[in-house]
Amino acid sequence: MNLKKLQLSIIIILILVGLLAVLSKSNITGYVSADSKSQQLDIFADKSAEFIITAENEKPYSLTSFRISGQITGKGAVEIYLSDIVGKRILVYRNIMEKSTAMSAITGMAIGKNTQPELDKLLLIIPNKELDEKPAKAENQETGFFTDKCMDSCVMNLKMSKNSRYKLIVLVDSGTSIKISGIEYAVKN
């Protein structure tokens, strides 16, 4: 009889944890084996712009996480996306203050810092063109410095090689500017 009560208790706990995860809109991720890379950048945008991202390597690999660091000046909105050739976007960063939940503070994929950044230039980021698109209007934008931010790009799977082409889309409100100083990303062969 005690075994049945224990099994029932475990099932109820798992259902409650599952419901809490779904209803809190948090990301729950597990451990992913990947190499962490970092690159220093010097990208400045005071208008919406598009950059091409490609790889230097002949050997294909998967980009499994993409985080961004930099500084925002001004009180407008900024949104940064990765986009594939058909236009499917992955939200990397938005400077809108979100309501946080207890779950959002403890979830996400942790990536260790790489101590050899001079070897990490796997990604080439090439300016392409200005865009007419603006970020979504919202209140409570964060300004100032931000480090290792990711939203939907914390855990992903983009196939990369020298023949791959993705876009880094930076949407900036008028009167606002962003300096992207670096990226952290994880790769898996």
Mean pLDDT: 82
What is the CA–CA distance across the termini? 50 Å
Which residues sit in consecutive blocks of at least 5 with pLDDT less than 50? 101-120
Please give the radius of gyration in angstroms.
19 Å
Supply the number of helical segments.
1
Strand content: 35-45%
* Domain tally: 1
- Any idea of the CATH class? Mainly Beta
Overall shape: it is: globular
CATH architecture: Sandwich
Query: Could you say which structural class the secondary elements and strand pairing correspond to?
Result: mainly beta
Q: If you consult CATH, what is the topology?
A: Jelly Rolls
Number of strands: 10
Q: What share of the residues lie within helices?
A: 10-25%
Q: Main sheet, how many strands, which sense, barrel?
A: 5 strands, antiparallel
SSE order, as H and E?
HEEEEEEEEEE
Question: What is the compact description of this entry?
Answer:
This protein has one helix and ten strands.
Keywords:
Jelly Rolls; mainly beta; 10 strands; 189 residues
Describe this entry's structure for a reader.
A hairpin with a 5-residue loop joins β4 (78-83) and β5 (89-94). The strands form two sheets. Strands 1, 3, 7, 8 and 10 form a five-stranded antiparallel β-sheet that branches. This protein has a five-stranded antiparallel β-sheet with strand order 5-4-9-2-6, with no helix packed on it. It contains one helix and ten strands, in the order αββββββββββ. The radius of gyration is 19 Å and the shape is globular. The protein has one helix at residues 2-23; strands at 35-45, 49-55, 61-73, 78-83, 89-94, 123-130, 144-149, 158-160, 166-172, 177-188. With 189 residues, it is mainly beta. It has a single domain, classed as Jelly Rolls (Sandwich).
